[in-house]
Specification:
Layout: H1 6-23, E1 27-31, H2 37-43, E2 52-57, H3 61-68, H4 72-77, H5 83-97, E3 101-107, E4 121-127, E5 134-139, H6 144-162
Helix pairs in contact: 1-6
Length: 165
């Protein structure tokens, strides 16, 4: 997948905001490799303040634990780049903000590997009112900017899919 066009990201963010407004639900993000770009995409949409509660950037591993409550055991045994970590991040951002939905991402944007994971490996989790979060791993191609942009679009589209939109 090549780097998405800016209008693709904006269209996905707009669709997500509109769907949440129609449902009277809220959303928050827990971001690592995207550094707040997902919540930035959401808040670029007019009317987003009705549904976007905020975002937590936990670029440093210890902040995943300190701010979002990711168990130290998960970070130690599963690692920062794992399904268990993003699931805990999504649950944590929902708990901290009171949001109905949480989006969490963690991965390797590059250019170097991290914890034995190659650049382009990204975990995305979307968690909502249902008990079971949707978590998936992706392997994106391209440079650091490509990986980050693909992560943003994937997270937004996955959220829409989980909302059934």
């Amino acid at each position: 997948m090549a780097r998405p066009e800016a209008d693709q990201v904006h269209e996905a963010a707009e669709a997500l905001v509109r769907t949440l407004i129609a449902r009277g639900q809220t959303i928050a993000t827990a971001e690592s490799l995207t550094g707040g770009l997902i919540v930035g995409a959401l808040t670029s949409v007019a009317g987003a303040s009705a549904v976007v509660l905020g975002g937590v950037v936990t670029y440093a591993t210890r902040l995943k634990h300190d701010l979002l409550g990711v168990p130290e055991k998960v970070l130690r045994l599963d690692g920062v780049i794992s399904g268990a970590t993003v699931a805990a991040m999504a649950a944590g951002v929902r708990r901290v903000t009171g949001a109905d939905w949480g989006i969490a991402v963690s991965g390797v944007a590059g250019p170097d590997p991290q914890e034995g994971h190659l650049p382009g490996e990204v975990w995305v989790c979307v968690q909502g009112p249902r008990a079971v979060p949707w978590t998936n791993v992706h392997h994106f191609a391209g440079d650091r900017a490509d990986v980050r942009e693909q992560t943003i679009l994937t997270a937004l589209r996955a959220s829409l899919a989980q909302l059934g939109a």
